[in-house]
Structures are given as structure tokens and as C-alpha cells.
Amino acid sequence: QVQLVESGGGLVQSGGSLRLSCAVSGPTFKIYSMAWHRQAPGKPRDLVAGIATYGTTYYEEAVKGRFTISRDNAKNTVYLEMNNLKPEDTAVYYCNSDVRSTDGGLQSYWGQGTQVTVSS
Fold it and tell me: Could you give the angle at the alpha carbon of 116 between the alpha carbons of 110 and 120, nearest 5°?
């Protein structure tokens, strides 16, 4: 079973930084796009940043210049470096990836989420 495991969330003051990690494990044949989404209480889950197989990136307008997404294909891991955090960045952050398993199936997988809380 392919699994995504996130780490790195926590409580930080406004202006601070955090680095999220998401490792993909299990019977993976190829990992395609990787992305971070977030969901604040009472709001829908939104795409924050994404990175394609060979490095093309996308950012939500609200995080441009503050967040950086990167991936280490050798470690099957995606990172989200978050700087100059603001209280409105408070949310549960979810990792998402399109993975082709060794049995040939292609599926979108989600991590369990990690809480990021930014105090003012």
C-alpha cells in the first residue's frame, strides 16, 4: 500500500518559519506530481503549491515569495519551506501525490495532514 507521511508542522509566531516534509513509501513504480494543500476550519481544501516530476512549480498567489516547494526524487520526498508565516496561514496541511504503483495502477494519494498554527 502506497502511503504518504507528513512531518514538520507545529506552532510558530507570526514572521517565523517552518519546513514540512512528506515521504512516499510502499510499492511505487513512478511518482508524478507532488503537491501541498491546506484546509482552515470552515473552509475548503485549497492547493498551496505543486511540483511536477522534473521540477516545474506552481504557487497560490497568497504564498508566492514566502513558500518554496521542492522534491528529492531519490528519497521520494516533497518539502514545503514556509517563511514569513502569517496567522492566515494557519491550517491543516496535506500532502498529495499521483503515484503509479508496481502493479500498474495510477492513483492520487493523500497524507494524513499536519497542523500548522501561526500566532499573532
Answer: 155
Cα–Cα distance, 33 to 44 (Å, whole number): 21
Give me the residue label for grid cell 508496481. Answer: 102
Q: What is the spatial distance between Cα 73 and Cα 25, in angstroms, rounded to a whole number?
A: 12
Phi-psi region of 27 (alpha: psi -120 to 50; beta: other; left: phi over 0): beta
Phi, psi of 74 (to 5 degrees): -70, -30
Residue-wise pLDDT for 38-82, tens only, equals 999 999 999 999 999 988 999 999 999 999 999 999 999 999 999
CA distance 58 to 48: 8
Residue whose C-alpha cell is 506552481: 58
* DSSP character at residue 86: -
